[in-house]
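Onboarding guide, step 5: your first structure request.
Type a short instruction followed by the sequence, for example:

Predict the 3D structure of this protein.
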Amino acid sequence: MSATRSTFVGFGFGPIQAGLFIYEAFRAGKFSRLVVAEVVPETVATLRAAGGAYTVNVATASGIAAHEVRGVEILNPRDPVDRAALVEALAEAQEIATALPSVALFAGEAPDAVARVLADGLRRKRERGGPRAVVYTGENHNHAAELLTEALRAQQAPLDSVACLNTVIGKMSGVVTGFDAMRAQGATPMTPSASRAFLVEAFNRILITRVPWPEFQRGLHMFEEKDDLLPFEEAKLYGHNAIHALLGYRLLRRGAMYLSDAAADPELMQQARAALLEESGAALCRKYAGVDALFTLDGYRAHAEDLLVRMINPYLHDAVERVTRDPRRKLGWNDRLVGTMRLVLRQGIAPRRFAQAARAAAAELRAGDARLLAACLRAAWAEEHPAAEEQELVLKWIEEAVDED
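The system replies with structure tokens like these:
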């Protein structure tokens, strides 16, 4: 089966959809139609006024390059006419991507709920004998594909012609809001009249679950299929995301505005490098030895050096305020700081630097009162019901962490 000149459909028109999925689908030249579903009326009107063309700003090592994407049809599933057109597009689509703020938007009985719209499209696909389709789930959730499949099953959708795939998206991205900010950062607005701009890094090595049909040819050919994404999902959460947070909370305490400010602090960069290689990287390499070249000393070192350079790219304008937002979530039992500490401890390694980062993040929760540290952390972990022994061990490491700032 050939994916040449087929239809691509996306749900959500944020920076990952616009700057990764649709952007790469346009560049691939394999799709006759590019369709995106978006519920914000202003965004729909803005893209339509621009004739379906928009700009993506790509941050490279030497500057920002503006790339135009053309021929995008934008449909609002809350509009009955648009919804019907979206169902028709889904019936002929071979590749679909969701890139929504949360997997919680998959389910629901509202007419515009993603699973409900997609289920209607799959039923129409069956009626017409339409092509099989894969759905790339881009919600930064380890089980997004399984959750979407369950939501489709609840809608009694025919599942024989669709495969929901998990993704590991290590591409940093964001939105620059306001004309002054766009001018200061050298970013081209989404459309000439828009007051925001999409800004993404050039990196596009995206990992996906292996497609279950050997004969299926993806138009998005640059994505790399893996039999088991879990090791790579953990590498992103406990490597990429964890170091991102470590740098962010260190810089927050120093009054820095952007993550790129770390480049001027060799000591901080060395702390981040050591945490990545000697703590989380060493633990991941022990846990997943033999799985992939990434989980070797040389493979992970190359990955770490590349990652650190990308993180402090000044053209990304990655704000410390954004990176450190919602410390309670980032201190979650399975999330990037405490989750990394647990991984490291379970592999017999001391999580000294991540404990320091967790303590810095916890300081944002307890408003300077050291007596509240344990209570704040236990509250952050309560829903996960952690084992008492492991909880006390993690708390001990955080409470005894030495502040190096």
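Each response can be followed by summary notes, for example: The chain has two domains: 6-226, 231-399.
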